[in-house]
Design goal:
The chain has 418 residues and is mainly alpha-helical. It has two domains: 2-58 and 146-184, no CATH class; 211-418, no CATH class. 54% of the residues lie in helices and 9% in strands. A hairpin with a 2-residue loop joins strand 4 (265-268) and strand 5. Helix 4 (73-87) crosses helix 6 (128-143), helix 9 packs parallel to helix 12 and helix 12 runs parallel beside helix 13. The protein is elongated.
């Protein structure tokens, strides 16, 4: 027990998790083992909370040391601008330090201390609205202290294993030694926390001027590049899932967009519906797939219908027009070059192959149609049908790996994307 107390005392005077020394294994009776586990958890929680609340600069330095820092001034300025716009919502309570790292992979993460890093590859590939949702999602993790809670949950499991093996401190020592790497790599975030961050992120995004369709559209792009990122069958035992299926995230975020639109705008597969009538199935254009463009078009339409009908109270009932709106509400739909404009807002920029005249005709019918929507089963069916035909295949990996996903600055507008 003396060795246990000495080990705990060493932890208490440690200045950070990163400098915690390896402890010694101990043999003890059941009461001592229980006390050891309880005290260890108290110490870990105290240190994690302290690190999260008061050592942001330390965590920024540690994270930047691990990932490197991109020297792309335009990318860092773009990140700063979007961050500033999101802060204007007043919904973000923590202070965050953000930077771009040089990795070309599609990833972003939030660490203890409120440090957020976006990979250069993601900066290159996403539109501003898609990137805004990515930041909203990561700040959702920070607002809920997911990094702290995730690490604590992981330690609790490891401590239980440690106790089951008779108080072998080596297991806990290994855990402590790897903590710094684990939370920087965002390996401690659970599936439920990912769902909560998506929900929080969308709630922030819908209070900005960004296209809410950027939320599901960003997930579409990641799905097209990496697949569902979800382990099936027995492999889950070896590699447990900590993220929901990408296809499920796309559908849930699409449903949130629909509800925000007053249950007037939906995406089924790669087709945009308004009041249950098909409006457009955009063609693929450059780096924008048909499905990704559909969500961006739907997001633009969702903002317009939201302004008239508000957000739906029930998930399956179209919202009625606000009494403050005129009974003879008019939709001004016109062509402006290759753009389709509704009430002064550009809904999409048509590419070669998009039937602009038909889209305008469909919009006029759908926007004036009686309130209606496709039920969830129909939307899910359309989603599954699209996945079977256009879904991620293993054979695509090499092609996508070699494909340049960068979008020229002039083409990052949602108008070009649809």
């Amino acid at each position: 027990m003396k060795r246990c107390k000495k080990w705990i005392g060493t932890l208490l005077v440690s200045v950070s998790l990163i400098t915690v020394p390896v402890g010694a294994a101990m043999a003890a009776n059941s009461w001592q083992i229980l006390a050891y586990g309880t005290m260890a958890m108290v110490i870990v929680k105290q240190q994690l909370v302290q690190l999260d609340a008061g050592r942001q600069n330390q965590m920024l330095a540690e994270t930047q040391k691990k990932t490197g820092v991109s020297h792309d001034e335009a990318a860092n300025q773009r990140l700063d601008n979007i961050h500033a716009n999101l802060m204007k919502t007043g919904m973000i309570k923590r202070d965050y330090k953000m930077y771009v790292n040089p990795s070309q992979d599609m990833n972003a993460f939030e660490t203890i201390g409120g440090v957020i890093s976006i990979n250069q590859g993601m900066m290159n590939a996403l539109t501003d609205s898609e990137l805004a949702f990515t930041l909203c999602h990561e700040m959702g993790h920070g607002e809920h202290r997911h990094a702290v809670n995730g690490i604590l949950k992981g330690i609790a499991v490891s401590t239980a294993v440690d106790l089951a093996f008779g108080g072998n401190g080596d297991l806990l020592d290994i855990l402590f030694g790897g903590l710094a790497v684990n939370y920087i790599d965002n390996e401690v975030i659970t599936m439920d926390q990912e769902k909560e961050a998506d929900a929080t992120g969308f709630n922030i995004l819908k209070n900005t001027q960004y296209n809410v369709g950027g939320a599901p559209a960003s997930m579409v792009l990641i799905y097209e590049k990496y697949g569902n990122l979800y382990t099936e069958g027995w492999k889950r035992v070896i590699s447990p899932n900590n993220h929901p299926k990408m296809s499920n995230r796309i559908e849930r975020l699409g449903n949130r967009m629909t509800r925000w639109s007053g249950n007037r705008v939906q995406v089924g597969g790669a087709t945009v519906y308004v009041n249950a009538l098909p409006v457009v199935t955009p063609i693929s254009f450059g780096e924008y797939s048909s499905c990704r463009r559909a969500y961006l078009v739907a997001g633009n339409l969702a903002r317009l219908t939201h302004e008239v009908y508000g957000e739906a109270v029930q998930k399956d009932v179209p919202q009625v027009r606000s009494t403050s709106k005129a009974a003879d509400w008019q939709w001004n739909i016109l062509r402006d070059g290759s753009d389709i404009v509704v009430n002064g807002t550009t809904i999409m920029t048509c590419a070669a192959g998009d039937d602009q005249a038909s889209i305008i005709k469909n919009l006029k019918l759908a926007l004036y149609a009686k309130a209606d929507m496709l039920n969830e089963n129909k939307i899910s069916s359309l989603q599954e049908e699209w996945l079977k035909t256009h879904g991620y295949k293993e054979k695509k990996k090499e092609t996508l790996k070699n494909k340049n996903t960068s979008i020229p600055a002039a083409e990052r507008s949602e108008h070009v994307a649809g």
